[in-house]
Amino acid sequence: MLVEFKTRAQDSPYLTDIIQLSVQRLAIEGQTGEAVERYAFVSVLRPNGRLRSHRVRLLDLDEVSNLKRRHKAILDGHLRPSYAVSEASCRQCALRPRCDRPEPR
Questions:
Q1: How many angstroms separate the CA atoms of 91 and 62, rounded?
Q2: What SS3 state is found at 1?
Q3: Dihedral angle, C-alpha 22, 36, 62, 94, nearest 10 °
Q4: Which end of the chain is less crowded, N or C, counting CB atoms within 10 A of the terminal residue's CB?
Q5: φ, ψ for residue 100 (rounded to 5)?
Q6: Distance (Å, rounded) from C-alpha 6 to C-alpha 69?
Q7: 99 DSSP 8-state letter
């Protein structure tokens, strides 16, 4: 079973955590031939010292492959990206300097 440890103020798993763990699961299974649980835990340590673990369902190979194809299509200019629902996600995004989303007021 996989566990991802995060330190952050928001006490919830992010989609990026689930994607990261899903790819790790597929890599481990591919390298070892051993089955890995289809769920994992994202353990979040908050600034106040509280630790909480969240059980998450991992993506299967088809779901990860679809994300990879979408990512490539966006980078190749064949598909327009959609904006994050949360402005906080935008502020932390590595691609923010290249994004065409208007700045929040």
A1: 29
A2: coil
A3: 10
A4: C
A5: -100, 5
A6: 27
A7: -
Nearest-angstrom CA–CA distance, 73 and 69? 6
- Judge whether residue 34 has pLDDT over 80: yes
48-78 tens-digit pLDDT: 999 999 999 999 999 999 999 999 998 898 9
**pTM score, whole prediction:** 0.80
What residues are paired with 39 via a beta bridge? 57
Give the pairing type, strands 51-57 and 39-45. Answer: antiparallel
Instruction: Compute CA distances 63 → 15, 26, 66, 79, 83, whole Å.
Output: 13, 11, 5, 18, 20
Q: Does residue 105 surpass a pLDDT of 60?
A: no
